Amino acid sequence: MTEIHPDQIELFLAEARRKMGRFAARTVRYRFLISLGYHPLTWIRRRSIRPHPEAVASPDVRTGGPRCGGCVHLAPLDLDGSGARRLKCWLNGGERVTRGDATTIRAWWPACTSYEAR
Ligand code: SF4
Questions:
Q1: Across the chain, what does the average pLDDT equal?
Q2: Residues 58, 32: Cα–Cα separation, whole Å
Q3: Among 107, 94, 30, 22, which Cα is nearest to 67's?
Q4: Top mutation candidate among 67, 91, 92, 105 for ligand 1, by most atoms within 8 Å of CB
Q5: Range of 33's domain?
Q6: pTM for the structure as a whole
Q7: Is 111 inside a domain boundary?
Q8: Is 1 within a domain?
Q9: How far does residue 68's CA lie from ligand 1's centre (Å)?
Q10: Is the pLDDT of residue 1 over 70?
Q11: Can you give the pLDDT at residue 89?
């Protein structure tokens, strides 16, 4: 795993946000983090969430390996009562969940060590 300072990520994200929309900028950041061997939630929650040992550090689902989309902890939740459901990691009753989009999981993310197959 390559060591990078969180400020580098924030600078990268700020630049990406300037050039594209928020959703697309986040996608770029997630792809960047995954390519470095990080699980994206590590940076969102500011604590280490390690990739599953069999996970492939690639955003390309064709490369195989366990992904968040196949995990029992992934749940579509309506947190603001709007009826819009977003995918969240409901591990340990929601300790990784916030109402914001930053903790919305992408099903294509490589799994973390807490992965349990459906
Ligand atoms: S516990 Fe499951 S859904 Fe949550 S981050 Fe890990 S692999 Fe993804």
A1: 86
A2: 9
A3: 107
A4: 91
A5: 6-103
A6: 0.81
A7: no
A8: no
A9: 5
A10: no
A11: 95
